[in-house]
Amino acid sequence: MARKIEIYDTTLRDGSQAEDIAFSVEDKLRITEKLDELGVHFIEGGYPGSNPKDAEYFRKVKKLKLRNSELVAFGSTHRPKHKPKNDSSIKALIESGTPAITIFGKTWDFHVKEALKIPLNENLEIIYNSVAYLKKHTGKVFFDAEHFFDGYKTNPEFALKCLIAAEDAGADCLVLCDTNGGTLPDEMKKITEAVISKVNSQIGIHAHNDSDCAVANSLIAVKLGASQVQGTINGLGERCGNANLCSIIANLQVKLGKKCITDAQLRKLRDVSRFINEIANLRHFKRQPFVGDSAFAHKAGMHVSAVMKKSETYEHIKPELVGNSHRILISDLAGKSNILRKAKEFKIHIDPDSPQVQDILNSLKGLEHQGFQFEGAEASFELLLKKALGLHRKFFNLIGFRVIIEKRKEGEDPLTEATIMMMVGGHLEHTAATGNGPINALDNALRKALDKFYPELEKVKLHDYKVRVLTAGKGTSAKVRVLVESGDEENRWGTVGVSENIIEASWQALVDSIEYKLLKEEE
N or C: which end of the chain has fewer CB within 10 A? Predict the structure, then answer.
């Protein structure tokens, strides 16, 4: 009986090693929740023994109620001349409290001799002892055979001995790692076949994309018998990146008929892809297969005519399967299905034939042209729908605000004060507050003005704040997009604002955050 294919996501660890990526702890927690919604089986949270940020993440992630995914802590085999019980890295892995642990070990004799500078037999003992010790303290142990394919090419006997050492110690899965990303598909096939004929344990694949073959290599390994696939959302990762799970999941499920997540979860694939790019502060790659804007886009002419009659004429799958949609680039036919889908998700009733759908679409296109993006700010998008459908009400009206920044002495932090005037339920409120910068001061002043009218706002906290420059080349006059994440004791939500003025963009996002909370309290 064929094994179920397990999806192992390492966006939070391997993906975060990509150039230009720096996830905060809050970023990692939000991504964890999103990956759980997608239904991946394992989420590798990071390296708890390597830095304070990952240690904090493993403390905080315990509070999340994951429904589909198991958390994994990542680390290395114990150091030479140390016993596992005395090794700080091994201790940190156990203290993370995750139900599964992944450790990597050297399987290329070149690394053992040149990096560790120990005999080959000692490396086998290190692998065995590390796995065996961890198996006593956690449910599952996965062994990442680092540089396995390079090691097999130079010394196949030793590389296989490394796997067998981990297997004998009780490893639950032996993961073949193409760490340098240089293995080509024909080599992948030959080596993976050889491994499967020699070991009995579950086999996994972890491919990097330096030869642009990571997805193909991962699919080959699965077809040969690997049943755990490691990768990252959007292929994020060091150098040229990791195997792209968006493409892998779609190909496995739709093309190869290998169920790894539910159909409903598969339809979230595009949303998850865009969400993580937003959190990572990266531009969306339009031509990314399956989930990109251009993946199912068609221009005027023969293609459009054919697609409108039978989509399979120029589309290899139905885009709805992965949460995408047709885009006819010269007409207004694109986008309505997305609006209806999101309205249903928000439990907002809207007639598909209503002209309001087209009005909302036109409004959305106009906002996107200005620079708004709603993948990481679904609360703002829900407010947009409710405003268009007459389901929104204003809880306060701004009369004006002023933000003053004063620096009195070189080497000291500036002083910031925000003053705000607004009408709330027929009452004029005029108040001021200080803060650690203009946005924090403005947020404090807004809360101060509203708290006595809406005490439920006391539970709302601003968890994260991001700024992206949208118009490169304009220096300090560039348009910016501000993404704010807020939350209370039960939920978190994202809101967005766009302007050439960073304070105005921030104000838009802050107001949306407050209004979203107040509307939810009325439901």
Answer: N
Tally: H helices and E strands in the chain: 18, 16
- Please give the helix or strand (H or E) that residue 228 lies within, else none: strand 228-231
The pair of structure tokens assigned to 177 is: 């790692």
CATH number at residue 215: 3.20.20.70
> Residue 28: what pLDDT?
97
CATH of the domain at 477: 3.30.160.270
- CB within 8 A of 59, min separation 6: which ones? none
Query: Angle at Cα 75 formed by Cα 70 and Cα 77, nearest 5°?
Result: 125
Tell me the pLDDT tens digit for each residue of 77-111.
Answer: 999 989 999 999 999 999 999 999 999 999 999 99
User: How many domains, the chain?
Assistant: 2
Residue 80, number of CB atoms within 10 A of its CB: 14
Report the alpha-carbon distance of residue 81 to residue 65 in Å, rounded. Answer: 40
Where in 113-198 does DSSP place strands (E)?
140-146, 173-178
Q: CA-CA distance, 9 to 108, in Å (whole number)? A: 24
Both tokens of residue 173? Answer: 């899965």
When pLDDT is averaged across residues 485-502 and rounded to a whole number, the result is 93
Q: Residue 72 sits in which domain range?
A: 6-279
User: So what's the pLDDT on residue 471?
Assistant: 78
Q: Kindly provide the b/e burial profile for residues 291-301, where b requires at least 16 CB atoms within 10 angstroms of the residue's own CB.
A: bbbebbbbeee
**pLDDT confidence of residue 50:** 82
Q: What is the DSSP code string of 447-461?
A: HHHHTTT-GGGGG-E
Query: CB–CB of 98/45 below 8 Å?
Result: yes
* Angstrom distance (rounded) from CA 244 to CA 284: 14
Residue whose entry in the numeric block shows the structure tokens 């118009």: 471
Q: Is residue 351 part of a domain?
A: no
Q: At what angle do helices 502-522 and 438-450 cross, to 10 degrees?
A: 30
The reply to whether 327 falls in a domain is no
Neighbours of 144 (CB within 10 A): 25
- Indicate whether 300 pLDDT > 70: no
Instruction: Report if residue 306 sits inside a domain.
Output: no
| pLDDT at 334 (0 to 100) | 45
Q: What are phi and psi of 306, to 5 degrees?
A: -70, -45
Phi (first) and psi of residue 398, to 5 degrees: -75, 135
Chain position carrying tokens 């986008």:
335
> pTM surpassing 0.85?
no
State the distance between the two ends of the chain, measured CA to CA, in whole angstroms: 49
Which of 239, 256, 279 marks a domain boundary?
279
Contact indicator for 69, 45 with CB cutoff of 8 Å: no
- Is residue 449 in a domain? yes
| DSSP-based three-state secondary structure for 431 | strand
Q: In terms of domains, do 270 and 409 share one?
A: no
Q: pLDDT tens for residues 311-339?
A: 787 889 999 999 998 876 544 444 677 78
Is the torsion defined by CA of 452, 455, 459, 464 positive or negative?
Answer: negative
